[in-house]
């Protein structure tokens, strides 16, 4: 999906939810949509400063929190970085990421079987899952050759 189409979809989701995609949030979304792979908050901040010289760390973190709450971005805990979700929409979904340790390629996959297995184990323990991100590190196909 193109950057423009992703932004239009994000605007429509925000409008439907009554959430406000402020100019700063929109700029951070655009920066993420142009990004190949994951990016750290401070690297995003440096890019945002070329557009808004007054941007501060709190600016980027507030925007990332909003985008994350809306399901537009995922935080990769092991890398302390963020990646845009290209298939956000009306429902929340479990996140499963394949992360190449060599070239930093990131692919989001969806496995209903994995989600069901984790939820079944959680249910058996009396645990209620509110948010799920599974990160798998290794080598992508390109880096294996």
Mean pLDDT: 92
**What percentage of residues falls in helices of 4 or more residues?**
40-55%
Low-pLDDT stretches are none
What's the structural domain tally?
Answer: 2
List the secondary-structure elements in sequence, H or E.
HHHHEEEEHEH
Main sheet: which strands, in order across? 4-3-5
The SS-based structural class is alpha+beta
- Helix count, DSSP H or I runs of 4 or more residues: 6
What top-tier CATH class of the largest domain fits best?
A: Mainly Alpha
CATH third-level topology of the largest domain:
Arc Repressor Mutant, subunit A
Distance between the ends: 28 Å
Shape: globular
Number of strand segments: 5
Assign the CATH architecture of the largest domain: Orthogonal Bundle
> What characterizes the major β-sheet?
3 strands, mixed
What share of the residues does DSSP label as strand, in percent? 15-25%
| Computed CA radius of gyration, to the nearest angstrom | 16 Å
In CATH terms, the superfamily of the largest domain is Winged helix-like DNA-binding domain superfamily/Winged helix DNA-binding domain
How would you describe what is shown here?
46% of the residues lie in helices and 17% in strands. It has two domains: 3-84, Arc Repressor Mutant, subunit A (Orthogonal Bundle); 95-144, Dna Ligase, domain 1 (2-Layer Sandwich). α2 packs across α4 and α3 crosses α4 (57-69). A three-stranded mixed β-sheet has the order 4-3-5, with no helix packed on it. The chain is of the alpha+beta class. It is built from six helices and five strands, in the order ααααββββαβα. It comes from Thalassotalea agarivorans.
